[in-house]
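MODEL INPUT / OUTPUT PAIR
PAIR INDEX: 1
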Amino acid sequence: MNLLILCLFIACLLPYLSKFPVAIAMKNQPGGYDNNQPRIQQAVLTGLGARAVAAHQNSFESLIIFSAAILTALATQHITPTIQALAIVYLITRCIYHVLYLLDWATLRSSIWAISLLSSLAIIGLCLS
């Protein structure tokens, strides 16, 4: 159980850690980081900055299903080695996904995204049995 809770905690940190490349891209813009209108500044970023914003946003989107999966496993007391391994796979693939997004490796990134999604869905599926 502790491993699943730890994985959930780390997953909750990932969207906030993924903000660092966004903040760096914003800081490198003329006028620096605009803390008054950060979303407007983010919307006009291009290249690496735009990819960093997209990866940051996707981190929140992905967290929703992973959170549901982990909470389902905990609520149904399905805390098996397979489910724990899938939670770790999710975390690893999400970190790889973010790096690939920044590198602009779209095809491989999408494959890694699918693995992270399938790991979350598999956790929920295993809780049904």
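PAIR INDEX: 2
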Amino acid sequence: MRGSDSKGYPYLKNDTVLTRRLRRAAEEYVGKENVVDIDLTLGSEDFAYYSHQIPASFYRLGTRNETKGISSYVHTPTFDIDEDALRIGPGLMAWLAVKELMES
């Protein structure tokens, strides 16, 4: 993974094959129009450590809803969440797990 003299977080490594499968499953669950690619960013994420141990795929669950006036970015004083995401998130995670278990 990383040398013992490294500082900071490792890079996040999304497994290409796994990510494609999870994207298809997410599109089945929430609809293709609701699964979008986002710009690459430079940031740190604890999940990156896992991605160097096993195949991994990092995704973000959208919590914005501009029609409800919920549009601030995370880690800002005006951040809010569309609580509908709280209903979608657990179901999506369960669906992705079930689909992956069906693959094996």
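PAIR 2 NOTE: The radius of gyration is 16 Å.
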